[in-house]
Request: fold
Amino acid sequence: MKLNTVLVTLSFAAMTLPAFAQDATPRIDQRLDNQEKRIEAGAASGRLTEREANRLEARHDKVESDVAAAKADGTVTRDERTQLHKEVNRNSRAIHRQKHDAQHD
Reply:
């Protein structure tokens, strides 16, 4: 009977661990959503050329894959979170620079 209880507990923990990892970076996730909207708005308004928008989308996709990799083991460490914030900050600056340069569609 104790073995069944242990197995049920372990299987429950294994199922819920990814859910906790998904909530480990809510600020980063929200910032990525905001950045994606900024890129789409810049492309729609013509403030970003197609090439600039594609390049920014590629950078955005890379950060999203880095976030997924950090969450994959179920724990986002402080170092991983710091690195992710740096990447998101870098992308935010790149979006601003591209939207406010002299190139337009």
